[in-house]
Amino acid sequence: MPSKDQSLKDRLDGNELDLSMSSLTKIPIKDLAALPKATVIDFSCNELTSLPDTFCTLKHLVKIDLSKNNLTELPQKIGNLEKLQHLDLLGNQIQTLPMSFFKLKNLKWLDLKDNPLNEQLKKIAGDCLDDKQCKECAREVVGYMRVVQSEHERVKQIRLKEEREREAAKAAEENKQREQKKKQKQAEKDRKRKEYEARQAALKEEELQAQQNVEEDEGIQKQNSYQTEPMKPLTVSPCYIMFLFTFMVAIVAVLVGGFFYCQQHGNIPACHDINFRADQVTRTFHYFFAK
Question: What is the DSSP letter of 73?
Answer without folding.
Answer: -
